[in-house]
Design a protein that fits this description.
The complex is a heterodimer.
Chain A lengths: L19 H6 L4 H18 L3 H12 L12 H5 L3 H16 L10 H18 L7
Helix pairs in contact in A: 2-3, 2-5, 3-6
Chain B lengths: L1 H6 L2 H16 L4 H14 L10 H5 L3 H16 L5 H5 L1 H8 L4
Helix pairs in contact in B: 2-3, 2-5, 3-5
Chain lengths: 133, 100
């Protein structure tokens, strides 16, 4: 069982059975956060051209105070993510809240630049400024 | 509906009651708007109207933050139950007509 009680295929993510209340009451274990962030990064890089990744990238950028001014997400899309991704995203949101920090704690400036570039490319493509082959 | 009544346990009822009560008491506060947007967005098929800034979640008080994420977790695990059913259509409509 994973952190939210959802069965996960990834054995690295299977060690956690705390409920959200429990997670929020205590600091999340470092290894728990690291495993989920590792998954999230890998997921983004391997699927960056898919629609599903869009909400993940928007959430990561949107959690940052300086960059998140105009970034909004829809929770209906979040609810349609696959369990591992949903878990990792919730862990990211909870850990940001717990540490009263931005996600720069987990994503360094270089990762941020790449995520911002991915977002810009997606927007330009949606506006037909860029045409995908 | 009857099936849902059996599935929905007391814990989630408490969570929903707490969130409703917070929104009732703080209707003109940003935190109530964030909660309503997340709740509506969770079942309103990607309607842009209910989009939320992720950083607004960070501004919620701990209790509301825990309740909201617990609600999302419950809804994720129980796909047959919607936030509309838990909060009731009447209550949501009452609030939504007054949203700025």
């Amino acid at each position: 069982m994973s952190i939210l009680g959802i069965v996960s295929k990834n054995s690295q993510l299977n060690d956690f059975s705390n409920s959200i209340e429990k997670m929020l009451g205590n600091n999340l274990p470092k290894h728990c956060i690291e495993d989920h962030m590792y998954y999230l990064k890998k997921y983004i890089w391997c699927n960056f051209d898919t629609e599903e990744v869009k909400v993940v990238v928007e959430t990561i950028l949107g959690l940052d105070n300086s960059e998140g001014d105009n970034i909004k997400i829809n929770f209906n899309v979040v609810m349609s993510l696959k369990p591992e991704t949903f878990n990792a995203l919730i862990v990211l949101i909870i850990s940001c809240k717990q540490h009263n920090s931005t996600n720069k704690h987990y994503f360094n400036e270089e990762s941020f630049k790449i995520l911002r570039t991915l977002r810009t490319l997606r927007i330009l493509r949606a506006m037909k400024v860029l045409i995908s082959k | 509906m009857n099936e849902y009544k059996i599935t929905v346990n007391n814990k989630i009822e408490n969570i929903v009651d707490n969130l409703k009560s917070h929104c009732d008491r703080n209707f003109y506060n940003e935190s109530a708007h964030t909660i309503l947007h997340v709740v509506m967005g969770s079942f309103s098929s990607s309607d842009i109207l209910w989009n939320v800034q992720p950083k607004d979640l960070m501004k919620l008080e701990s209790k509301e933050f825990i309740n909201l994420l617990s609600l999302l977790s419950f809804l994720y695990k129980n796909k047959g139950v919607t936030a509309e059913y838990l909060f009731t259509t009447e209550w949501l409509e009452d609030k939504l007509v007054l949203l700025p």
